Amino acid sequence: MIKWIPGSDDLFIAIFKNGTVLIMDKERDDQTFNVPEPTSWVESQFNAFRPHRSNKYNPVSVWKISDKGLTDFAFAPDGMHLAITGVDGQMRIIDYRNEKLTDVFSSYYGKLTCVDWSPDGRYILTGGEDDLVTLWSFLERRIIARCPGHKSWVTGVAFDRWRCDEQTYRFGSVGEDCNLILWDFSFSALQKPKHPRALASSPPTILPKQWAPPPPSATSNAIPASTLPPTIQPQSALPINIERKKSLKSHRLFRGFSSPDTSSLISSSVGSNTSGSTIGGGGGGSSFGGRFRKRSSRSNNIFTANNDFSDDVIVEDQLKQHMPVLHPPVKKNQAAVLQPTTIKAIHADPCLSLTFREHTLVTTDRRGRIRTWGRP
């Protein structure tokens, strides 16, 4: 799959069945390259590198994301975040400008096949082999609802940007059951889960006062500014302001539990250090706390004034690991349900994609048929 990078006339992204993502420039010449083997668990989750020192050759950058195939990807309206789905049943959120994997979400069952963002960047849609459309909150980093209705694999999802406002979001999906299904999402339309306790495992979000793109570090693998497209500002997107708090008390509480990316995840770990959705958590979910290096003997007594620097160094070493936050799948009875408003058989063959236009809907099927429909 190939797509242009939003805001750029030259750069595009291609994903492949070997789990690799290439960032290419149409003005550069192509040249062969080798993908290095990962040397650590962190690199096996996400490894970004530049195969050529010269600015004359493609690819601009290479991301090794998985050993299994990638199925779909979509840019957020802000042009800075990228959602990628794969055969391994995971949706990965990547900070495109800093080339950093921030979050990994898992499907209920099977691989994920398609993904789309809401026009304001608040929500993400996925569909897959579990016959479900899943609605995720990007700001809160959690599942909002599962949307049943398909009788076979979901092959395409899309938000209807002409029917989305602050209260209601219209989105649709198509699948191998040849059906087109439409949903109108609002929190009042959700059927509450029977056992909602698991929803609390996802950290709450601290909404920012003002958005400021984080400056790339001098030692990071950030994409050079000359190759970056201009930032696209959505009408009502609320990206997360990245701040680092170096309170000694906070360091002691969130050590080994937090994500290196957002202060919201750090602050949430202070309040719930047994969360199962963060790496290294001490109370369930995936535990990777042992991956961090052991504490130095210099910082055994962290309550002395002379050890503030040692404590900061330990935390910074952990943050520099670029560990993503793993979000385990939520059980079926622990997620809210959103029922469809319209179900319509539209093709004789399995459907492949759905696109909303201002006055029509466009669908495709496996035989290559393209059909245009009036809005319901």
From TrEMBL:
Sequence ranges of Low complexity compositional bias: 261-277
Keyword list, A-Z: Repeat, WD repeat
InterPro entries recorded: WD40/YVTN_repeat-like_dom_sf, WD40_repeat_dom_sf, WD40_rpt, WD_repeat_creC_regulators
Keyword Manganese: no
GO CC aspect terms: cell division site; cell tip; nucleus
A Pfam family it matches: WD40
Biological process terms in GO annotation: carbon catabolite repression of transcription
Protein name: WD40-repeat-containing domain protein
